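To: structure desk
From: M.T.
Subject: fold request, one chain
Message: Could you run this one when you get a chance? Sequence is below, nothing fancy, just the single chain.
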Amino acid sequence: MAQKPERQSEQTDRRTAEVFRTAAKIILRKGYDATSVSDIADALGITKAGLYHYIRGKTDLLYEIMKYGLRELDREVMVPATKIENPEERLRFMISTHARLVTRGDGAVTILVDEARALSAAQFRAVTRLKRAYLEALRDALEALRKQGKLRDIDTTVAAFGVIAMVNWLSRWYQPDGKLTAAEIADQIVDIALFGLLKRSRRGIALV
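Reply: Done. Structure tokens follow.
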């Protein structure tokens, strides 16, 4: 019996996601320049010709991985965050969930920062627009905290970029078999970030 079109589409989507995730891990480990199409095909257990069924070339693959990572960030972080009215809780959720995405080991989100230079000018602009949406979401939460009098005297753009950099750098040192779990590390990243962002009382307790 022939498969239904929607089932075939789901299988194709899953396989495409597997291609992106596998390629992201290799590029994250070896770097974009040192990663060949053959490396990715071998890791997937397919031929180069089979890989070209999913991609048009290495640069286009990098671009698609970046878009995939940003869509994931939007779906798992930004969309749910819009439903959290309390800006401190919203910020905590965004940092924690972003950290869990990075420590999940896919690599797609982190590649957004490290390898964007390899994109064409048009691709770079498109990715930058998508990244900007996440930056603005963080800034909105920070500005809301400022209005509540809870934010330290810091520039929200600097703060938002700093948070993103701190979370993305997790992929460079996080070890799945390390002493701390991904959840524990995410919680500590949140605590470190909020300690630097929020005002403190004379007793050292956050003003909430």
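Reply (cont.): Residues 121-147 form the longest helix (27 residues). Let me know if you need anything else for the meeting.
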